[in-house]
What we know:
The protein is mainly α and 331 residues long. Helix content is 45%, strand content 2%. It has helices at residues 2-19, 33-47, 51-66, 95-108, 115-129, 161-170, 175-182, 197-200, 214-224, 250-256, 263-270, 275-283, 285-299; strands at 189-191, 236-238. It is globular. It starts with a helix and ends in a 32-residue tail after the last helix. Ca(2+) 2 binds at residues 186, 240, 243, 248.
Amino acid sequence: MEKMLVVFLISCILHFASAQLKLGFYNSTCPRAESIVQGIVQQRFNTDRSITAALLRMHFHDCFVRGCDASILIDSTRSKSSEKDAGPNETVRGYDLIDVAKKAVEAVCPSTVSCADIITLATRDAVALAGGPKYAVPTGRRDGLVSDAADVNLPSPSLTVAEAFSFFQAKRMTLNDMVTLLGAHTVGIAHCGFFQDRLSNFQGTGQPDPTMDAGLAARLLRTCGTASRPVNRDPTVFLDQGTSFVVDNQFYNQTRFKRGILQIDQELALDRSTAPIVSMFASNRIAFQQSFASAMIKLSKVEVLVGKAGEIRKNCRVFNPRKKTVIGTGL
């Protein structure tokens, strides 16, 4: 009974927190905030279309640790490593864009717009620029006071569907949400090291993974080499081999034909719990776009700080000055 009560109370707290977010939160305090962020994302996208994938990854990696609180943006200090320097985050990029957006917003509205909201808005704008759905996100998030590399535990690309889903369930997300959000790989890239075992020595068999198209495996082997004899340090490849910079449903079509590069991507089309969702998205572009917009809004509400919790950072890379605050500790 006590356990049920605790779960109920936590659920109520999370619902209350997300309910305090609202559309147009800055309409009176910083009416230009969203347009400023949008303009900066547009400027970057004009010269670097890969920024969409970078922001999607940053947003996901931030929200899945301590919630969407911009803790991923904090720089490490000599005494403590922040989330930014945890293994899964070593290849996250786009921090400079967030810095530019924050500086521009601060110049107009000092200490008003959170770094967490800037990540959320920038990701939304980048998705739309890449041909994805245009969706409205509520704002009002506050920035976290903790960033610790030890807290970073993110789903690996080699997990089974059931194993990966456990991470999403922990964030109150559904199986449909997981399949939808992994569709962000439609604009993603991956280092060879994340899938190299599938190319020539899958599970120690000395053969490529039978669930990968043989032609694709051979082509990737030429790009990546083997684990013992890589082509170079660690090349990258597009996860969507057709429309690599467009947020569309082609990723799902490719997994249906054994052309998923990451193990988890291919598993989505093979596992009986997720295969029907993959088939639906592969055949219905509108259904995917609607689901993607809904899942991204839901993701942006994960364990947010609102009201008086947290802070509004002046610099997204460091906590605001206060007594006895160091990375990895609360107040």
